[in-house]
Amino acid sequence: MSAQLKDVTLVHTSDIHLGSGYHYDEYLEKIVDVVQLPDVNGLLIAGDLFDHKEVSQQMVFDTFKKLGETNKPTVILPGNHDTLLTNSNLGFHTPSNIHILLKPEGESVLLADLGVNVWGRPVYNHTPEFRPLNETPDQTKGVWNILMAHGMVVDSLDDNLRSSPITIGDLTQVDCDYVALGHVHAFRQILAGETIAYYPGTPSGIYEKTLIKVTFESPKGVSVNRVDL
Ligand SMILES: [Mn+2]
Question: Which of 147, 161, 164, 222 has the smallest set of CB atoms within 10 Å of its CB?
Fold first, then answer.
């Protein structure tokens, strides 16, 4: 970490499952309310924004309109439920503050105003062979580096046949300041070497409704705060 890094606070959420019928609009509003706070600079959605690909066009339009109105950089990594986003025939326009990571091999977006680089590999095939977090890029110098991954953390690939596995070994070897996970519907810290990795839980549905505010400060480092909605 260098002293020139800017102080940044991001909201990290996942597993919103819009269209599943669990009062989605209420929770999208709550997320947007947190993102609108003056101390928040941007938003990370680590997969399963939409529940399925038959979500109504009106809901898709309303969702991107609300996320666009924050005017804060927003990075979306498609999860296994986001077939609406990974379908190549997207028939909608997204506001300019929204970046969807779509390249199957993984891609980065540099949020230059914030001094943040975000990388993620979207879920196209939710199978045991798909590895969201192996072979990740090296850090970009002079900015905060965030990796996003939608999958199931497992001790090792031998343990089970979970789809989209993220091993503790994968998490230990990454070179970044924060790993924004999604897929598990509960707030959870994952311990893996020096890596800081969290599931934020889900802001909607029948579970405890949580998200994360993560703050990057020079030279103090990274602090993670659970927010109960
Ligand atoms: Mn999922």
Answer: 161
pLDDT digits (tens, 9 = 90+) for 62-109: 999 999 999 999 999 999 999 999 986 666 678 999 999 999 999 999
Which residues, listed in sequence order, are joined to residue 188 by a DSSP beta bridge? 199
Cα of 183 vs centre of ligand 1, distance in Å, is: 4
Residue entry with tokens 């850090």: 139
Q: Which two tokens stand for residue 101?
A: 């990571």
How close is the Cα of 115 to the center of ligand 1, in Å? Answer: 28
Report CA(15)–ligand 1 centroid distance (Å).
Answer: 6
Q: Could you tell me the residue range of the domain that residue 158 belongs to?
A: 8-228
**Does 59 fall in a domain?**
yes
CATH code at position 46: 3.60.21.10
Specify the residue for token string 């379908």.
87
pTM of this prediction exceeds 0.90: yes
Q: Is residue 213 part of a domain?
A: yes
**Within a domain: 2:** no
